[in-house]
Write a structure and sequence with these properties.
Elements lengths: L3 H12 L3 E5 L6 H18 L6 E5 L28 E5 L11 H6 L2 E6 L11 E4 L6 H7 L8 H14 L10 H11 L5 H10 L3 H12 L2 E3 L4 E6 L1 H7 L9 H6 L6 E9 L2 E8 L5 H7 L3 E2 L3 E7 L2 H18 L1
Helix pairs in contact: 2-5, 4-5, 5-6, 5-7
């Protein structure tokens, strides 16, 4: 599952640092939030007992449903102070430019370390990389680099959340025997599985159900029915008063449409600032498309940001997908 050398990377890096920053990608999802808070809790509980280390988490816009996690109120997003950290740990992020404003602390840090599972992570942007592209999630990667006996309930809860979200509640093809074994070990720490799964994955507000219904109703079958696409423009986002944290589950519901190979969901965060999410049912490697447009991800789940008009983004994406579908 891992080598002894890799299992020591985390503890050795932390032991040599007095100040540590932790950050993930912008618009954090379940795996990113779980990894950041899981690592923060683990370090606070195991390294600050005998050593006074300054540990800071930089993370913005944590979805409300994740706020039950211990120390979810600790992340900050203020960058007025010029500061150099001894160690900057990047989680669930395949490129430095996806760190947002926290990138300036990353660039000035004495040492950098990244834990990830995205196959598109080249490792060129960080000093050390622990990458397992065949693992379900960054939380699964982190578990293998932690001392199991030192993992508390609060750490286990955060890691379990990340695994649940990146496996689609253990139904995606990235769910392997090892994934289930690790999930079981986290449950043995006392994690309430129903609380995590129902409360953060399935439960939706009335408005979230409305927006899901609208996206399904207005979806389109394209490229001979092999692609399903839906989008929300900025005006509609404001009409429903929703933000990205309210849109979880839409792309997954599109993906399970019978006969579809690729699901696409696009929403406009700000005028002409678009977020594109891609899901594949196996035949198409959507990470190739995402990387081409400056993003990244996995074979079956990827995404990217693009600036421009919605119809241009859709047309350009369909050209790329049509080439991949022709190759299959």
């Amino acid at each position: 599952m891992r080598s002894e050398q890799e299992s020591r990377i985390l503890e050795e890096a932390v032991a040599q640092a007095d100040s540590i920053a932790i950050a993930g990608h912008i618009r954090p999802d379940g795996d990113c939030v779980g990894a950041c808070l899981g690592l923060y809790n683990y370090l606070q509980e195991n390294f600050n007992a005998s050593f006074e280390k300054e540990i800071t988490v930089y993370m913005k816009d944590i979805p409300e449903t994740f706020l039950f996690l211990k120390n979810s109120g600790k992340p900050i997003w203020e960058f007025e102070e010029e500061k150099q950290y001894d160690l900057f740990i990047v989680l669930d992020c395949s490129s430095g430019d996806r760190l947002g404003e926290a990138a300036k602390y990353f660039r000035s840090a004495k040492h950098t370390l990244c834990f990830d599972h995205h196959i598109s992570n080249s490792g060129h942007f960080t000093e050390k990389l622990v990458l397992y592209p065949d693992y379900s999630s960054t939380c699964e990667v982190l578990f293998t680099c932690m001392c199991e006996e030192k993992i508390s309930l609060s750490t286990a809860e955060a890691l379990y959340l990340g695994i649940v979200h990146d496996t689609g509640v253990f139904k995606h093809s990235n769910t392997l025997e090892q994934t289930m074994c690790i999930a079981g070990k986290l449950l043995s720490k006392g994690v309430d599985s129903s609380k995590v799964i129902d409360g953060t994955f399935y439960e939706k507000t009335y408005i979230e159900n409305q927006i899901l219904g609208r996206c399904l109703m207005e979806s389109m079958l394209l490229l001979e029915g092999k692609v399903i696409l839906s989008y929300l423009n900025y005006k509609t986002m404001r009409l429903y008063n929703v933000d990205p944290s309210n849109l979880s589950g839409i792309i997954d519901q599109l993906r399970v449409t019978k006969g579809v190979e690729v699901a696409v969901f696009i929403y406009e965060v700000q005028p002409q600032n678009l977020k594109v999410s891609l899901r594949s049912n196996g035949k198409v490697d959507v990470s190739k498309t995402a990387v081409f447009f400056g993003g990244g991800g996995h074979r079956e789940a990827a995404g990217y940001d693009v600036h421009g008009f919605m119809h241009d983004a859709i047309n350009n994406l369909l050209v790329g997908l049509s080439h991949q579908l022709e190759e299959e």
